[in-house]
Amino acid sequence: MPDIIPFDEGERLLNWQALCTALERGHSLPRAETRDTFLYRGADTLLSRAAWIDGLGIAVKSATIFPGNPTHDKPAVNGGVSLYGDGDGLLEAIIDFHLVTKWKTAGDSLLAATHLARPDSNSILIVGAGTVAHALYQAYSSAFPDARFTVWNRSAAGAARLATRFPDVAVADDLETAVRAADIITSATMSTTPLIRGAWLRPGQHLDLIGAFRPDMREVDDDALRKARLYVDSRETTLDHIGELKIPLEAGVITRDAILADFYDLPAGAFARTSDDDITLFKNGGGAHLDLMTSHYILGAWRGR
To answer: What is the DSSP letter of 202?
Structure first.
């Protein structure tokens, strides 16, 4: 029988640094074979993702993203994750979708930040105040325990709710001022037009972009891309699929060789900040290979409990 891993029981076993180690180890294995399928109905999306990594196994994840759900007291994102054995294809586990998504998404960004952000970063801005923002606070707090946190959100009420849950988070009234003051900016919004301007950035900052997942979505403008050193979690799942990079690539704003590294370059040391003055920009695409690595880590923690 496969292991059934629910959210609360699974989460109690997990650790952000251990997950980053597992993700880094996963990228030392052969490059994943992945397949992504998108279906759209207006603003609603069905995303099906599958990944197979030799030596690790197979994961299949289906996600529905219905932005209007919260107005009816329903979660905007739902779905399911199945994990299969590498050698025999047998179903090993069914893992709570939200558990995998939370830890994969924030862990993806955290792994990048541990290599790209300045270690002395002490001011972190969270742009957006949804479910992902809560996970980002928890993840970044684990690696930057002395950092001051600020949140900006289009809706002041949303920012206030996050600040109520985490009392050491301050609410920013003005996005430009907050961006200029932060050492790390982590953005998780549903924006289709750029919110963050390159003119606001200064040397030494790290910019972590999570929100855009569709071809029509962007969180930063062209100037930010030109000013920064660009990194992604996976070239295969970001460059031709996500508007943050797809749109400027097609317009000739940047070229493909502007993407300096992805996580598969970690073993060679190429995924790294090169100077204290670098402005580093990371696009978190959250591909199926990361769902597989995260699910495998969760299953290992579950079986070792």
So the answer is: -
How far separated are the first and last CA of the chain, in Å rounded?
18
Q: Is the pTM of this model over 0.85?
A: yes
The span from the CA of 237 to the CA of 140, in Å, is: 24
Q: Which domains does the chain have, with CATH numbers?
A: 3-101+289-303 (3.30.1780.10), 102-287 (3.40.50.720)
Residue 167: is its pLDDT beyond 90? no
- Picking from 278, 176, 286, the residue whose alpha carbon sits closest to that of residue 230 is 278
Give, in degrees to the nearest 5, the angle at Cα 35 between 30 and 40: 155
Confidence at residue 36, expressed as pLDDT on a 0 to 100 scale: 81
At 291-305, the pLDDT tens digits run 999 999 999 999 998
Q: What does the alpha-carbon distance between residue 246 and residue 235 come to, in Å, rounded to a whole number?
A: 11
276-283: average pLDDT? 98
